[in-house]
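Supplementary notes for students who missed Thursday's class. We covered one full example, reproduced here. Read the sequence, then the structure, then the short commentary at the end.
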Amino acid sequence: MMSNAAVFCLCVCVTNCVFGETDEVKSVSVTEGDSVTLNSDVQVQKDDQLLWTFGPQNTRIAEIIRRDQINYIFVSNDGRFRDKLQMDNHTGSLTIRNIRSEHTGLYELTVISSRKTQKRFNVTVYAYLPIPVITSNSSQCSSSSSSSSSRSESRCSLVCSVLNVSDVTLSWYRGISVLSSISVSDLSISLSLPLEVDYQDKNTYSCVINNPITNQTTHLDIAQL
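Structure (token representation):
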């Protein structure tokens, strides 16, 4: 039978011991059409091997093997990565040019030298945002007289819309305050958001579309309605 001390040591090891190294996954967000560099934070040494893989199948996309002071570089030129990859000769950092939504996923760098280390990057590519369009529907505009005064009130229903978007939020603002908003996650759809305004309103209104890294804004000029 195990002694109490042995049981205690075993429990401590099970709860606190770490076998091997677990690297943190770095999150990287980028807009479609831009370039992004995944930094290795290493310097290629003699007999080092650096391997970049992509996706759940660990597809090899770039590699450096250093032999006799010469770096032999392989960069994938097939399929989705054709003419888009560049690997730094000295560090092994990977640049993806003109990035597209199909490049969203997990990138893993394996460095084999005196010991094996790994770095992982979860890259999310967001579509370029369109500029919101504000339109008015004349059939939904009305004019009425207030019973408490002779002042005439004219109101009109507006719609802010964007086409073929995903992972965005569309919002109406009055000044810096959010009046209403609508969001969409994965599907590429069209969004529209209504707003009713008074022609005599002196407030500043704007329609904003945004994702986690960028936004587009259209300001409302009531005088031009």
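Commentary. The helical segments are 4-16. The first strand starts at residue 25 and ends at 31. If anything here is unclear, bring it to office hours.
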